[in-house]
Amino acid sequence: MKTLVSMQDLSCLGKCSLTVIHPTISAMGVPCAVLPTALLSTHTAFPGPAVTDLSGCVRPILDHWQSIGAEFGGILTGYLADPAQAELALALYDRFGEGALKLHDPAMGDHGRLYSGMGPEMVEAHRRLCARVDLILPNLTEGAWLAGIDWEDRTDLDFCRQIATELLKDVKAVLLTGYAPTPDTVGFYYSDGHTEFAHAAPRLPRSCHGTGDLFAAVTMGGLMRGMSVPEAARLAAEFVHRSIANTGKDSRFGVAFEGELGWLAEKCRMHNA
Ligand code: PXL
Predict the structure, then answer these.
(1) Which among 52, 51, 70 is positioned nearest to 61, based on CA atoms?
(2) pLDDT band at residue 273 using 50, 70 and 90 as cut-offs
(3) Coil, helix or strand for 93?
(4) Helix or strand or coil: residue 54?
(5) What's the whole-number mean pLDDT along residues 215-230?
(6) Atom nearest to 40 CA in ligand 1
(7) What does residue 220 show for φ and ψ, rounded to 5 degrees?
(8) Separation of 219 CA from ligand 1 center, angstroms?
(9) pTM for the whole structure
(10) Shortest-distance Cα residue to atom 6 of ligand 1
(11) What is the per-residue pLDDT across 34-83, written as a single tens digit (0 to 9) for each?
């Protein structure tokens, strides 16, 4: 099994990005290297996190990896602490991206709002990364921003299609999360311009921090294990659903995915049996 590298922030408390992605991908039996871009005391949904920008460490890490002949089968990029970090993700693609499966999660907001500390230049930074990868995984809010479409509180198929059609002018394939044909369901919509599919399942009546990262991790891990996009995305959706079901009332510290990792590992074993 080839190694993938995940380039994200490392948030010490409040599970998201690397602290969600590394254990999940590892449980799927896929070796996961990490490229931390910033160290935060917590994710940014808590007020006033202590942030150390690690941008200066990234190029020396890439240089060293090149000097030892490192190779990656997959690259998963996501949250940027600063729009200028897009350059670092592009350097990662340039140096290690040939032949690697590249996914980008343009993690910058949800429910019509940008995460704290982000502005319109972040949308442009993510657009540049989206244009370079094999598959992007925005939620509907991120998809609308990237597409230059006014966000509306809509989750229907027509809205998904409208966003994807616009995005597909610049990107290869789109897996949009948040598609919900009815208020009590949630799922995803995929299109690469030739094939499309939509999936929705019963929704739990709450949302949790870190679920986008979880969805991206399982989708990436599944693809690395040879699953098709629909298979990997369905597995991701089910894993997220089970994890939300385990999460207590205070979801600020993140989604409770740990107890479901055994289930996920078994699903992967069965797929490759
Ligand atoms: O889950 C996306 C994410 C990643 N990293 C940091 C965040 C968030 C969402 O708020 O704050 C630091």
Answers:
(1) 70
(2) confident
(3) helix
(4) coil
(5) 98
(6) 12
(7) -65, -45
(8) 18
(9) 0.97
(10) 43
(11) 999 999 999 999 999 999 999 999 999 999 999 999 999 999 999 999 99
